Sequence to fold (336 residues):
Amino acid sequence: MTGPDLAVPTPRAGLIPLLVGDTPVVSVPVTAGGREGTLRLKLESFNPCGSIKDRTAVALFGSVAGQVDPATGIIESTSGNLGVALAALSSAAHVPFTAVVDPRTPAYAVREMRRFGASVVVATDEDGRGGYLLSRLAMVDRMLAERPTLCWTNQYENPANPAAHEWGTAPELARQVPADTVVLAAVSTGGTLSGLRSYAARATKWTVVGVDVPGSHAVGHTDGPRLLSGIGSSKCSGFVSAADGPVERVRPAEAVAAAVWLLEQTGIGVGASSGALVAAALRLIERDRLTDVVCVCADGAGNYLDTVYSPHWRAAHGFRTDPPAVVRGPVEWSTA
Fold:
């Protein structure tokens, strides 16, 4: 991964940066609402720590490597995946890492952070915007005031975040999918979406569509409950806005149904945000008659066994899992 002003991690960060990327794309022929199309799923769960946030973590870590006090280390607010990746990098570099999480952070992710030696702090107050992000950020501010030598990687404003995807994820994806396809990316910080759009503007004919959920403030705001981790935000993105390009909003029930359908039909387990992407892709195939849609699937099913893939959790929230589409043929894997 290279690019203007994009720092690289120090050798002390271990082998993790060398293993990030080269994730596969699987093609799934589907019929949605009588319309035939192909879903191309880029499975970022194949990164060493299990998500697309491995790419972000490598870029963020590299951007601050020269500022880190080895006694106090780094701090970041995280809903799960980024915290795991930063914990792994910090452990390899022998610097402390403090993760500020919230009650929605998957238990698996918290266990992984602690396994890598991270100090995990929980922000328990809802922020009044359907989540905990603003409370997590307030806690980061308090800890920085108390310990000024802490280094905040700041995924929300650090340009290394979108750069990781403009110069890493996007060129890799361009070798795997058609140049004139539609690419979907979930919105949280907006780093992935921004990076893909920047690359597409100069190098491909992609239409890059953001996928968000009701209740999110990431790229505008519509009312609705926010139940899923890894998608949506309590604050506006620092990297993208509603004016930058198309956005599809997917209800939690649609995202859950699509994720469960995909696992049952293909054996491919994806996370909550990826379920939203699949739901949006099927919508575009049916509504807009698209024949080829790419979903950049941020993570796998592991973080969601107690939620999306739990029949008890789905029943408690009144979610049904009626099949949203039909798989027409065998899936095809590609790493080229």
Notes: The first strand starts at residue 25 and ends at 32. The radius of gyration is 19 Å.
